[in-house]
Amino acid sequence: MFSGSYKTDSRALTSRCLARRGWLSRVSLESFNASPAGEAVAVMLSCCASRRFADAMAAGRPYPSLAAAQTATRTAFESLTWDDVLEAMSEHPRIGARACGQSAAEQSGVADSSRAALAAGNARYEERFGHVFLICASGLSGEQMRAALEERLGNDPATERAVATTELEKITLLRVAKALSA
Prior knowledge:
Blueprint: H1 10-19, H2 29-34, H3 37-45, H4 51-59, H5 66-78, H6 82-89, H7 101-106, H8 112-129, H9 142-152, H10 157-179
Helix pairs in contact: 3-4, 4-5, 5-10, 6-10, 8-9
């Protein structure tokens, strides 16, 4: 079940942003390949907060190209359990809530006028499914996100788990591309 509030005080937001993996680590593919395992894991955790995912990506190095790293991302996602997905989703802010770091850029299509409707939809979604609504928000308007949220409220739990996992994978693929392109 969902816990927390949609109302956010800016000081709390700033401290949460600093404490969480809200900032994408950017390195070159070459530096990522050559970095110590712990640093490579940290870079991947900034892309997806699943420890299993980050460990798999670090262990799979070296990657000869960004395309190879993205193929490895897809392969790592095939091994994730629902608990791994929940672990990753726990680091994602609610769509429409004030976000920081990379999530703020990804959710830049949310206008203030959409926030109340998204907050209400998020509360219904979290009550129904027990986890945050996740969507690859890059390039979407707040209205498009709200429409997707409303549509997905009609999914059964198994279907929604599959959809949420696919959305997490899309987000992670974009973040891996950004992280390894410094």
